[in-house]
Amino acid sequence: MTLRELDLLQTYADQLVSGEEVVLRVVIGDLCPRPPVLQMLSGFFAGYPNTRLHLEYEAVGGPLERLAEGDADLVFHRAEPSDPRFEQIKLSTTAMVPVVAPGFLPFASTKRIMPEQMRPFTQCVIRDTARRSSSENFFLIDGAHRCTVPDQMMKKELILHRLAWGHLPAWLIEDEIRDGRLISIAGPNFPGREENLAAIRHRRHAHGPVTEALWLHLEGWRMTSRVGRGGKRLRARRGR
């Protein structure tokens, strides 16, 4: 055994004695913008070099299922304020905007579009990574053909290439809405939804000192007042 290996074993033993976590398991959900979260985690874990960050991605019901089953210490996802099992720190909000690419629809893209008009067109949805899928309906049109993708970026690419339509988080499409590559069809019949993005942990699970330090750090950290470039609210451009 080398001196390096002995040092690592001693560090590991010291961590076990102090109760400091050897690994901290974090899940980023599909609605959270990854760059600010990853930048924050990078800065935080630079101060805890002996705790390894185990980072994973989950979608739709996957993040909270992992948390509930004890497979994650902390998740970044849409808030679930009605679930008493979880404590949450609100970090930001984002709108889910229904969008199409120019030329995707054979009729005018206006805010008066009816769900029945969209039924013949492929709707793109995020694939749920939960083992037990939620019964909640996320903007689905009954009877419409659907294609599933693993994440929001892939969904955006399909919509941009006029292969489908769907709802995307405002922070992801700010530039495309502004320059006309995507058109919002939000209106009375497709209102979209405002989502609260939060850091979430399980109330009843034991939390080590590094997890507690990260939680305290998150209480003073926010993505922006609204997720998007410069924190500016997205103004959706509509077709005429």
Automatic annotation (TrEMBL):
SUPFAM superfamilies (alphabetical): Periplasmic binding protein-like II
Keyword Transcription regulation: yes
Domain spans labelled LysR substrate-binding: 23-218
Top-level lineage group: Bacteria
GO biological process, one term: regulation of DNA-templated transcription
Gene Ontology MF terms: transcription cis-regulatory region binding
UniProt xrefs under Pfam families: LysR_substrate (PF03466)
The entry's keywords: DNA-binding, Transcription, Transcription regulation
Family, as annotated: Belongs to the LysR transcriptional regulatory family.
Protein name: DNA-binding transcriptional LysR family regulator
Species whose genome carries this gene: Bradyrhizobium macuxiense
